Amino acid sequence: MKNKIFVIDLPTLRLDWIASEMPHFNAITKDWHRSSIEPAFPALTCSSQAALTTGAGPDKHGIIANGLFDRGTKQPEFWVFHDDKILSQRVWVDYKIAQKKTGVFFFLNINGAYADAILLPKPIHNPDGSMEMWCYHKPEGLYPDLVKTMGHFNLLKFWGPMAGIDSGKWIAEAARRTILKYDLDLSFIYLPHTDYAPQKFGPESDQFRIAHRELDGVLSDFIESIAAESPDVKFVVVSEYGMTEVTHCLKPNRVLREAGYLAVEMREGREYLDYKACRAFAMVDHQLCHIYCDPADAEEIKLLFEGASAVDIATTDPGSIGLAHERSGNVVLVAKRDAWFAYPWWEDLDEAPVWAKTIDIHNKPGYDPLEMFWDVKINGTSQDVNLIKGSHGAFPRDADQKAAVVSNLKGIEGAKSTAGVYTSLKTALGN
């Protein structure tokens, strides 16, 4: 294994906590480069991973959030993009052209990607409503072979109230086995563990520190096991964004409904958004909100949100904030650092869609962090927005909103941003 590169993507690694909370990783990387870098904007997983793998911004790669709204079909889609939705060339394509073997493990939006090895959760939904654990995989037989010795990947440990380090352990071990089996030259591995605690308990919480300690063992074991094969192996450990403490949220669809822009249809006594009839609706994502409407209504809608306590920026010109793409909303909102956006539009929970109290990341027109909390009183995921203590996505203005990189790859010290890490990977290909 000579001249191999392994990129480990972590949502919220804290540089200032490595020494105190990650002693094993700190020791391994004591001579490596460490620095804060500018995160991609929007500072969201899908946008960050698109920037990391293409070097482009959303005006080029087209990933304007974790969800997209198709103006043709009038339907939003979250977390289910095919690789062809990323409109800029991915770095693993360059490596494959150079006859290097590539792997991508649990990155979002990689179905159909031009890589040699791929793993991504893709549960099977049966007609009776039941679900079977499964993963999209490449090459043929990769996931079934892993299941024989590791068991199925447990999606319930990846997202929801039970999410924890067990999913990270499975991902890291599956990636390790695949990397060694197929002798991969460039691999990307996503370990989401440190994303949960800061949202649930806050970015300065003891639980967030504990999450770093739990990650320490998984991350260090992975690095050591791969490095044992060759001293020439290089690692790039990069975070996507930092979390900020939040104290309040705004529900833009409620505002639009009260102003007469939102349309709902009743089905079996429950309210669902009628996207085709809506004069405007909001697709929310942490601290970012895209509002889709008739362009003639955009300025009037912007005025509804200007001055709101949760809103830092309300604009009808997405290009002014780096989102000059046809997929962007006609109005875009960016939250203040202490606020976030929630998607609900109903007033009465009994009239909410059937999936409102469930873990359903695809039907909701927005990211729902409350899926991490189970409320026994309503026998479903909580509806209390006050439970959320941390968020991300807005423009980084302070050190705690920065991303980070820890690496022994030559030239990585020149990377000042997420896109800069991509440039270092491209440069390494030519060396």
Description of the molecule:
With about 425 residues, the protein is α+β, with helices and mostly antiparallel strands. The protein has two domains: about 5-245 and about 400-430, 3-Layer(aba) Sandwich (Alkaline Phosphatase, subunit A), CATH 3.40.720; about 250-390, 2-Layer Sandwich (Gyrase A, domain 2). The chain is about 25% helix and about 20% strand. The strands form eight sheets. It has an eight-stranded mixed β-sheet, with helices on both faces. Strands 16-17-19-18 form a four-stranded antiparallel β-sheet, covered by helices on one side. A hairpin with a 5-residue loop joins strand 7 and strand 8. Helix 7 runs parallel beside helix 9. The longest helix has 22 residues, at about 205-225. The model has no long low-confidence stretch (mean pLDDT about 95).
What descriptive keywords fit this protein?
Alkaline Phosphatase, subunit A, four-stranded antiparallel β-sheet, globular, Gyrase A, domain 2, 12 helices, single chain, 2 domains, alpha+beta
Instruction: Tell me the structural class.
Output: alpha+beta
Overall geometric form: globular
- Outline the biggest β-sheet: 8 strands, mixed
N-end to C-end Cα span:
16 Å
- Per the CATH scheme, the topology name of the largest domain is Alkaline Phosphatase, subunit A
> How are the strands ordered across the major sheet?
2-24-11-1-10-5-6-9
**Strand segment count:** 24
CATH class of the largest domain: Alpha Beta
Note poorly predicted spans.
none
Helix content: 25-40%
Query: What's the CATH H-level homologous superfamily of the largest domain?
Result: Alkaline Phosphatase, subunit A
CATH architecture of the largest domain: 3-Layer(aba) Sandwich
Question: How many distinct helices?
Answer: 12
Mean pLDDT: 95
**Rg over C-alpha atoms, rounded to the nearest angstrom:** 21 Å
> How much beta, percentage-wise?
15-25%
